[in-house]
Amino acid sequence: MAQIDKKTLEHLADLARIKITEKEEDKLVEDLKKILNYFEELQALDTKKIPPMAGGTDLKNMTREDEINQDLAKSREALINLFPEKEGDFLKIPPVFE
Amino acid sequence: MHMNLTNLTIKKFQEGLKNKKFSVFEIAEEYFKHIEKKDPEINAYISLLKESALKKAGEADIKKAKGETLAPLTGIPLAIKDNILIENEITTSASKILENYKASYDATVIKKLKNEGAIFLGKTNMDEFAMGSSTENSAFKKTKNPRDVSRVPGGSSGGSAAAVAADMAVAGLGSDTGGSIRQPASFCGVVGLKPTYGAVSRYGLMAMASSLDQIGPITKTVEDAEILFNAIKGFDPMDATSQRLTTDNLQPTTTKNLTIGLPKEYFIKEGLDDQTTKAISEAIESLKKAGIKFKEISLPHTKYALSCYYIIMPAEVSANLTRFDGIRYARIAGRGSQTETLKEIYFRQRGEGFGPEVKRRIILGTFVLSSGYYDAYYAKAQKVRNLIRKDFDKAFDPSAGGVDVILTPVSPTPAFHFGEKTDDPLKMYLSDIFTIPANLAGLPAISISTRPMENPPVGFQLIGKHFKENDILEIGKLYESR
Fold first, then answer.
1. DSSP state letter for B377
2. What are the tens digits of pLDDT across the range B414-439?
3. Predicted pLDDT at B295
4. pLDDT at B335
5. For residue B337, what pLDDT is reported?
6. Is the pLDDT of residue B278 over 90?
7. Separation CA B194–CA B202 (nearest Å)
8. Which of these CATH numbers, 3.20.20.70, 3.40.50.20, 1.10.10.10, 3.90.1300.10, describes B1-482?
9. Which residues of B are catalytically annotated?
10. Contact predicate B146/B162, CB 8 Å
11. Burial B61-85 (b: 16+ CB within 10 A, else e)
12. What is the ipTM of this complex?
């Protein structure tokens, strides 16, 4: 089934926004090949009529009132103070579109 | 004053405090003395909270002297895994990318424990972002197993388990996604409880795989696990998976009428080492003598659980860890130029900030979710997860002569040596094979050390029905009382 090579890995690393060094690349390709190979055992199972189990609970549409949570409001300042770069209360980042 | 911390449990602490055998401050101070002597060897803690802990301890003593009513867990010194937020304290998840991250609020479990009067001694070491089975994936240090320092403490909550086993805390909190509370508890000869999915709020726990994560206690006795579990459980509107317990769930259990199932798929000869087999057989014999009925059962899809888990978990990891981008929380200093673009920031922060196992899982998760492979891997795994859950439903079904509790080993082997499995991720993953199914099915499960303790320790696992923590706790207490 799925084949993973350096080219695929580079594409995945790009999607995941992770810099991977040349040395890491070789080991990762080898590890991923082994792991994906292990997954092959699942193909032996007939799951055509089995519905997927999405998530760990049968709860549905858990909603709550859209009210101001004072505890959250309290931690706002602390959150803003964590920003590595800011301007006023805004998070500062380099331009998204170059 | 010299106190014996070795046999100190939550229960004994409460009695001692009541009978004025010691003050809260004396105990807290004694713990820090012991930690300062012992932890340079064990490395259970990433950071200590000495100042705030001693301050809280002093305040508790003043309250007591004034005759004020004390909260039930007043003064109980706890070790907290470093992926659980304590307001204003550095919380790293043992990752370089969060080395300087200071939590801006309390996790719900921390808030509850603070209200109960508990004291936090420090934040414990773990596999980076809870990804690992030996705590060797910490970006900061290697925790040693206090029972045999040539061996790993297990993981990912290895720091909390080692702290409790080495008497550097009365009890601790861990998190469990595929066995991260139970396996280290077993390796370190202590007790670890993974509650039912939805029983304990994860608000303020750094998310790893959200459909699997649970917070739970690591303690010296089953009784203590029950006390801590009762303190942290309950509905929380801040966690959408949190459940309101009905009165039925809270019914006390008597062990008299309980039947334990032994799933044959967990006791295959080639899958278990001899010492583990022997210790667990003895535990089963002891429970039989106590009047518990046993029955062989089958959970036929057990062998697919590992594959299923290692598809679903990395998929969720790859999504959950996008938030760590060097933009919102903390940023690694160093080589980046002033003119770094947004994309360059992402790549460098995540490239340098994450360790090899975290990268491996993010890449793997990105792969199984990518177009063209989604159906073959992720969708397939979700269906297999359903089959695994149905196995348990059937085994527990009273109308089909089902059992009440299931007993299995926690791990195929006792604690292994450092470096033994670090080169081969698949080999490391296999050490979770017996703990993963309870996470996939959302069931409560506890790891209990066999008695007398083996060297290195061996644990057995009790898996209960959804929200029937009481069943496994009562059987655990029965075992420990013998």
1. I
2. 999 999 999 889 889 988 999 999 99
3. 97
4. 59
5. 65
6. yes
7. 13
8. 3.90.1300.10
9. 81, 156, 180
10. yes
11. bebbeeeeebbebbbbbbbbbbbbb
12. 0.94
Q: Which three-class secondary structure state does DSSP give residue B84? A: strand
**Strand B191-194 versus strand B214-219 pairing type:** antiparallel
pLDDT at B214 over 80: yes
Place of tokens 């008299």: B256
Q: Could you tell me where the beta strands, DSSP code E, fall in B208-303?
A: 214-219, 259-263, 293-297
Domains in chain A, please, with CATH? 1-47 (1.10.20.60)
Please spell the DSSP secondary structure of B292-343, one letter per residue. Answer: -EEEEE--TTGGGHHHHHHHHHHHHHHHHGGG-SSSSS----SS--TT--HH
B332: tokens are 């690694």
Q: Answer with the residue of higher pLDDT: B360 or A79.
A: B360
In 3D space, the residue among B176, B170, B184, B180 whose CA is nearest the CA of residue B228 turns out to be B170
The type of residue at B87 is: E
Query: Do the chains contact at A18 and B347, CB–CB below 8 Å?
Result: yes
Q: Which of residues 22-41 of A touch B (CB under 8 A)?
A: 24, 27-28, 31-32, 34-36, 38-39, 41
Q: Do B105 and A19 touch (CB under 8 A)?
A: no
Please report, rounded to a whole number, the percentage of residues in chain B having pLDDT higher than 70. Answer: 97
Q: What is the pTM of this model?
A: 0.96
> In chain B, where are the structural domains located?
1-482
